[in-house]
Task: inverse folding
């Protein structure tokens, strides 16, 4: 199992790193989609099937489309690429890396977490009962949030005046 | 007969007149004048009724007390008191006021603010009458301060003149300095006895129990509470009655219209101090006979009184302004009254107060008549020769002078001064007050002779005097009545028939006949004669040729004369000491405000400054220099920090991440797992 | 290396990658995508502890579902904002949107 | 109306007026003024209704409403009035409309000014009726906001700097208050004034507060002291005051000195003394010195001020310090002399009211002078105003003599009672403080002489109009009250006497 997970982890990590580093915006967005796909596979391997499919649907199907549309709509062109390196950015990057390094270090080398046996996967039916039972309010709220986000996104992205919308 | 509970009517009438006058249109002339006159005449009649009531039972203290308001669960009580002292004084004040009011209608006929003048006069009379019939030290203080206010308004009546405005302020402040003592004395008395009522059926502060307690309460240094309170109250009297060392305001107060000078700076208001001391005499005398008291309250009164009597007379010698001569004369005569109280003869003081009120009002109104006639010329050097032009004024002025210097047997001043000197002669403590009184007699005769000679004799030395005419009927009428009073007022208290003294003390005073005081009378007559002779020889014998000729006295004693003209530099002394002290304290306070308190704030701000590497010097001229510097420092520091606020989200995030990383590394390397 | 540790390590690496994207990319869209990646890293942690944790952790699983839903909403609004900003500034460079300056 | 609704309406109506004005669109100026005047005058009406309910036999709260508000924090909606609160409510009722009228008279942006002012007035009222720290503090802080904007937007040339200074100072003080009450809350679980005072009376408070740390009681006391001291102001926390009073619009200066400074005095009596009597007693001597310094230095600094409003500001410091002098003398003396204690306490409250009247009137006078002269406050630029404007001079003179404590006018009564009490408790302090009476007379009469007397000069040489009808409507009532309350002080004393008696019996420690 560990091996499978390790392979999937690499499949997921590699496009992510590449996405951050490549200069082309479209490429970058597509690479992100790859990473999300890998992550969905990873979830699947973990035994969280429903989450994995949700991940694939939402990210690969939804977010990526939105992102690509945004890229196209804003037409940044090919010049808007990686910004020139600066001391500040180097510091930021370094800090991010050291942050992760410390997280890694703490989780891998100093962690006393016992490596537990995997718990039994939750059957889909049980998940449904959970969502419809104790978490019903939360589900409804999330639905509300999504609706609001939809309306908000429409309002924000819609042109102020129809006349302006033509060239936007 | 007027019952004590109706006594409030006496001050209420003029007060009402004042209130209506204040509310009347400012250009109104007839209404305020008529109201004021009507009110004062009404008060005069009421006073007479009160006097009748008081004389019916001179020893009884008829009171009507009431609660003003409550402080906590304690009542603050006031009251009215009907006794011969207050009633006599009321009659006197009302009587002189009526005459002065009548005089004023003519004297200020052309003044556009005539109505205002009478409103202020009414306020003054109301306050003065309230003071006289008050049965509570607190009520007395209230009226006392209102008298001060009225005096302030009247001295500064011609407020467009800077000198008048300054004199008014000086009078108010100087008397208020004494009033602080009064206030403290009142507070102390309140604290010690829980009351401020003079007479309250045995519980008053001037009645047996309270007095005994006050005299028995001793303080460190051998002082008794009675001595302390007495001295503090006396401080108030010193201010109001122009006693040394607070006499400086009284001559300056002559900037007011002459009727004001006559009414309040000669006859009534300045007498309030004497009245106060006479009123609380039992308290002042409570420490008499106690051993170990460093200074008896009355001894201090006697000393101050005799110093003032002599000093006032001395300073009067060198003045050239008619009113100022009379003002210093008033200071001197008030000194006599204080002296009398100090040596224990408060009834003699009141006697002298009454006679002095009559003749000094006469003299001031006479001088007013002169000034009016001479087109507001009041420098004696530029007058002269008025005896023929203003015969009536001259005669009445002479009568007043005779009363003041104490020409024997007929004139009122002779009898009252004799009573004062007689008491001083018998004072067991010291003979110095007596000697000072005798010296004052000579000086008084001298300076009054000088004044009369310079003003009325010789020939006119100025335009004003040259074109003077006798004053109108309203003025001469007042002069006539006062002249009669000046002569006759002394007959009520002669040694042969001491009616006044008996009434005041409430017990028959034995007539000691002329024999006992004969020596003193002869002595004082000789002294008066000497003074008149010296004055007549120097001034009447050879009148000065013109207004620039030097004073005969200055030719003989230039140093002394210069010192007297400069009023012994007492004003300058105050300016150099008290004034400078006060200014210094104020400057210190301002300095503290600016640098120390501001500086503390600035120190706090310096911390902010250093963190922001800010060193911009800021100069703002103001009390809060320090604070401005501090807030500017804060702002600059903030600006410096705000450079980091580039507005770029990523910059902010970077900062957050750097912080997080440092934190995480610390945690990791610190070994927290 | 146990599966749990592996999951945690991957989560950390993904988080780092997302963070770096947020920090150094100048393009608003990529920054948003980086944020999404960080969210995913967090989700992965939830799942890991649900699966390998001390048990009773079905809340972790459910939470991930909500997280994904909210992330979707966030992405939608975020992209809409990007478009709005672009209309306003004619640019989607983060550096140009610096109105937050103090 | 029930008592509770009266209290709520008292605070709410001015706020409602502010809200209406702020949101009400473009009303004509006349309507704005009328609405603002109505909302402001409501205080006087409610005050009168409450006065009708006042029972002199009840020393404590005669109107009270207490309902749970935020249950989880133990915060109540607790409003109530006793004689002291009513006194200050009435003061606000008198000064509020007059100060509002003065502010709006020549203001630009009338609607905004009126809204801010009504917010200020409502907040001040809230401070006087709230008995739980939470609503009390909200009102206390809320009053800063409108004051800030009024000073900055409608004040003098340096109004901005003065407003910042004012807010920073008072906020610093408020921080102390907040921390102190946080400590009290942490220790006791309540922020209610009455509950805290009760805990204090039973002796539990000291133990609970001591549980937070040995220094906690002293620090809490200090926090409250500083917070209230800045507002009052207690020397040396007064540095904000001269500039603020000088730069604020005249009407706001009237309200600041008349009402807002009383918020501090009120707090001393309502909060500091009942909750920290032992600390107050322990530190009474240094505090007494501070109050005395305020009395003396205030008067002396006023003597040196060349600017009218700065002089009045320092005079205000001097007068307010008398109230604190009385409190500290009482707190330090204990149950020594019941009559003196009652006298000092009643005097302090009466003085607070009377100073509100006379100081507001004098600031108004300063405002009239400034307006007539085109904005100068420099004493040397005036002369002979009395000749030019005799009616104005008459009313101004009454205010002036009231301020310097002339008997027969209102200023005397409070000062006299304070001196009577303090003299019995601390004779030397009283004797020193009387010096300030003299200095006050000197600078006020000096001001009077320079500005009103003498020949017309400076700004007075041209046309210098006497009071117009609107100015009469402001100064007239104040002067009337000065005379009325000077002659019949029982009108005020009746409100505070029950409290003074009760305090003298209970609050001072043996």
Result:
């Amino acid at each position: 199992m560990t091996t499978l997970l390790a392979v999937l982890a690499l499949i997921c990590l590699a496009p992510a790193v590449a996405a951050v580093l490549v200069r082309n915006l479209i490429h970058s967005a597509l690479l992100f989609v790859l990473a999300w796909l890998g992550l969905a596979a990873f979830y699947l391997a973990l035994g969280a099937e429903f989450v994995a499919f949700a991940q694939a649907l939402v990210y690969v199907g939804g977010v990526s489309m939105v992102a690509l549309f945004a890229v196209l709509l804003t037409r940044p062109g090919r010049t808007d690429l990686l910004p020139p390196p600066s001391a500040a950015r180097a510091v930021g990057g370094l800090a991010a890396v050291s942050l992760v390094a410390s997280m890694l270090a703490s989780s891998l080398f100093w962690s006393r977490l016992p490596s537990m046996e995997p718990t039994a996967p939750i059957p889909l039916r049980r998940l449904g009962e959970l969502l419809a039972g104790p978490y019903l309010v939360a589900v409804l709220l999330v639905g509300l949030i999504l609706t609001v986000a939809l309306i908000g996104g429409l309002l924000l992205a819609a042109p102020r005046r129809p006349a302006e919308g033509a060239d936007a | 007969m007027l019952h004590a509970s109706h006594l409030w009517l006496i001050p209420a009438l003029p007060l009402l007149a004042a209130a209506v006058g204040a509310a009347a249109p400012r250009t109104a002339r007839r209404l305020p004048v008529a109201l004021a006159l009507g009110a004062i005449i009404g008060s005069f009649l009421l006073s007479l009724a009160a006097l009748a009531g008081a004389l019916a039972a001179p020893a009884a203290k008829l009171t009507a007390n009431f609660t003003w308001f409550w402080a906590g669960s304690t009542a603050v009580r006031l009251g009215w008191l009907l006794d011969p002292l207050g009633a006599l004084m009321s009659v006197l004040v009302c009587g002189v006021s009526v005459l002065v009011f009548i005089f004023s209608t003519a004297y200020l006929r052309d003044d556009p603010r005539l109505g205002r003048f009478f409103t202020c006069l009414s306020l003054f009379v109301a306050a003065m009458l309230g003071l006289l019939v008050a049965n509570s030290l607190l009520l007395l203080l209230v009226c006392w301060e209102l008298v001060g206010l009225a005096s302030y308004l009247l001295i500064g009546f011609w407020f467009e003149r800077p000198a008048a405005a300054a004199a008014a302020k000086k009078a108010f402040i100087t008397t208020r300095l004494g009033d602080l003592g009064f206030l403290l004395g009142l507070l102390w008395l309140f604290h010690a006895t829980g009351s401020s009522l003079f007479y309250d059926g045995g519980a008053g502060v001037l009645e047996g129990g309270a007095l005994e307690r006050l005299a028995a309460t001793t303080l460190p240094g051998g002082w008794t509470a009675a001595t302390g309170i007495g001295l503090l109250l006396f401080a108030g009297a010193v201010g109001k009655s122009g006693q040394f060392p607070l006499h400086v305001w009284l001559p300056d107060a002559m900037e007011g219209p002459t009727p004001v000078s006559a009414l309040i700076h000669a006859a009534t208001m300045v007498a309030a101090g004497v009245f106060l001391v006479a009123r609380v005499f039992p308290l002042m005398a409570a420490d008499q006979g106690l051993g170990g008291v460093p200074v008896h309250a009355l001894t201090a009164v006697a000393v101050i009184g005799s110093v003032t009597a002599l000093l006032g007379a001395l300073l009067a010698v060198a003045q050239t302004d008619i009113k100022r001569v009379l003002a210093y004369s008033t200071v001197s005569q008030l000194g006599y009254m204080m002296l009398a109280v100090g040596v224990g003869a408060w009834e003699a003081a009141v006697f002298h107060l009454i006679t002095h009120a009559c003749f000094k009002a006469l003299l001031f109104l006479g001088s007013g008549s002169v000034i009016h006639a001479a087109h507001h010329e009041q420098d004696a050097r530029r007058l002269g020769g008025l005896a023929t032009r203003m015969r009536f004024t001259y005669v009445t002025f002479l009568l007043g002078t005779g009363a003041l210097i104490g020409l024997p047997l007929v004139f009122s001043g002779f009898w009252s001064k004799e009573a004062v000197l007689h008491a001083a002669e018998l004072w067991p403590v010291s003979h110095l007050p007596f000697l000072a009184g005798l010296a004052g007699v000579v000086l008084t005769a001298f300076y009054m002779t000088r004044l009369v000679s310079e003003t009325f004799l010789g020939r006119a030395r100025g335009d004003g005097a040259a074109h003077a005419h006798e004053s109108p009927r309203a003025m001469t009428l007042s002069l006539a009545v006062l002249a009669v009073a000046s002569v006759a007022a002394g007959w009520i208290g002669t040694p042969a028939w001491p009616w006044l003294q008996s009434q005041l003390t409430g017990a028959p005073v034995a007539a000691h006949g002329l024999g006992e005081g004969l020596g003193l009378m002869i002595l004082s007559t000789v002294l008066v004669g000497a003074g008149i002779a010296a004055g007549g020889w120097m001034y009447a014998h050879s009148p000065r040729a013109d207004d620039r000729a030097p004073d005969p006295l200055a030719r003989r004693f230039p140093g002394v004369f210069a010192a007297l003209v400069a009023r012994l530099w007492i004003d300058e002394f105050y300016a150099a000491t008290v004034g400078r002290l006060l200014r210094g304290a104020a400057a210190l306070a301002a300095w503290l405000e600016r640098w120390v308190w501001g500086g503390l704030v600035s120190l706090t701000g310096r911390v902010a400054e250093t963190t922001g590497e800010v060193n911009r010097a800021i100069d703002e001229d103001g009390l809060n220099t320090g604070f401005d510097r501090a807030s500017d420092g804060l702002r600059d520091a903030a600006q410096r920090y705000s450079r980091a606020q580039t507005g770029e989200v990523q910059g902010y995030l970077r900062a957050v991440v750097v912080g997080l990383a440092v934190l995480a590394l610390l945690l990791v390397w610190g070994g927290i797992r | 290396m146990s599966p749990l540790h592996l999951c945690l390590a991957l989560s950390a690496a993904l988080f780092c990658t997302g963070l770096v994207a947020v920090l150094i990319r100048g393009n608003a869209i990529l920054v948003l995508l980086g944020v999404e990646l960080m969210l995913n890293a967090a989700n992965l942690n939830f799942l890991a502890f649900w699966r390998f944790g001390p048990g009773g952790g079905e809340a972790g699983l459910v939470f991930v579902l909500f997280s994904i839903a909210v992330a979707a909403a966030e992405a939608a609004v975020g992209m809409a904002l990007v478009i709005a900003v672009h209309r306003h500034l004619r640019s989607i460079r983060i550096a140009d949107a610096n109105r937050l300056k103090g | 109306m029930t008592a509770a609704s009266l209290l709520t309406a008292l605070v709410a109506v001015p706020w409602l007026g502010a809200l209406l004005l702020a949101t009400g669109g473009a009303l004509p100026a006349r309507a704005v003024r009328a609405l603002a005047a109505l909302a402001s005058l409501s205080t006087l009406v409610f005050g009168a209704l409450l006065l009708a309910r006042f029972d002199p036999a009840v020393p404590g709260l005669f109107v009270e409403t207490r309902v749970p508000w935020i249950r989880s924090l133990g915060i109540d909606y607790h409003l109530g009035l006793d004689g002291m609160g009513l006194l200050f409510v009435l003061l606000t009722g008198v000064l509020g409309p007059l100060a509002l009228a003065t502010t709006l008279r020549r203001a630009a942006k009338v609607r905004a000014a009126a809204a801010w002012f009504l917010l200020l007035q409502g907040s001040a009222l809230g401070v006087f009726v709230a008995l739980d720290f939470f609503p009390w503090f909200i009102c206390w802080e809320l009053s800063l906001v409108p004051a800030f904007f009024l000073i900055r937007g409608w004040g003098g040339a340096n109004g901005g700097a003065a407003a910042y200074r004012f807010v920073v100072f008072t906020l610093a003080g408020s921080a102390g208050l907040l921390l102190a009450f946080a400590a009290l809350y942490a220790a006791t679980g309540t922020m209610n004034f009455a509950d805290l005072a009760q805990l204090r009376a039973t002796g539990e408070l000291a133990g609970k507060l001591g549980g937070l740390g040995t220094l906690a009681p002293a620090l809490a006391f200090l926090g409250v002291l500083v917070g209230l001291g800045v507002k009052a102001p207690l020397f040396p926390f007064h540095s904000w005051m001269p500039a603020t009073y000088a730069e604020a619009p005249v009407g706001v200066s009237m309200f600041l000195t008349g009402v807002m400074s009383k918020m501090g005095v009120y707090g001393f009596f309502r909060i500091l003394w009942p909750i920290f009597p032992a600390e107050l007693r322990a530190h009474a001597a240094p505090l007494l010195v501070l109050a005395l310094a305020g009395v003396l230095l205030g008067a002396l600094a006023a003597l040196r001020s060349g600017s009218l409003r700065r002089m009045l500001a320092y005079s205000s410091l001097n007068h307010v310090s008398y109230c604190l002098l009385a409190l500290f003398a009482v707190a330090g003396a204990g149950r020594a002399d019941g009559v003196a204690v009652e006298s000092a306490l009643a005097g302090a409250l009466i003085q607070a009211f009377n100073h509100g009247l006379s100081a507001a009137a004098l600031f108004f006078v300063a405002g009239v002078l400034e307006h007539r002269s085109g904005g100068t406050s420099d004493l040397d630029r005036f002369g002979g105003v009395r000749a030019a404007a005799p009616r104005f001079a008459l009313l101004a003179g009454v205010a002036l003599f009231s301020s310097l404590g002339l008997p027969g006018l209102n200023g005397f009564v409070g000062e006299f009672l304070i001196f009577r009490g303090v003299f019995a408790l601390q004779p030397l302090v009283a004797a020193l403080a009387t010096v300030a009476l003299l200095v006050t007379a000197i600078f006020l009469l000096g001001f009077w002489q320079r500005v009103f007397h003498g020949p017309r000069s400076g700004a007075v040489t041209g046309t210098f109009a006497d009071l117009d009808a609107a100015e009469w409507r402001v100064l007239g009532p104040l002067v009337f009250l000065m005379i009325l309350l000077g002659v019949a002080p029982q009108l005020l004393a009746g409100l505070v006497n029950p409290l003074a008696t009760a305090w003298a019996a209970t609050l001072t420690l043996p």
User: Anything to note?
Assistant: Residues 49-74 of chain A form the longest helix (26 residues). The radius of gyration of chain A is 21 Å. Chains A and D do not touch (no CB pair under 8 Å). Chain A has a mean pLDDT of 77.
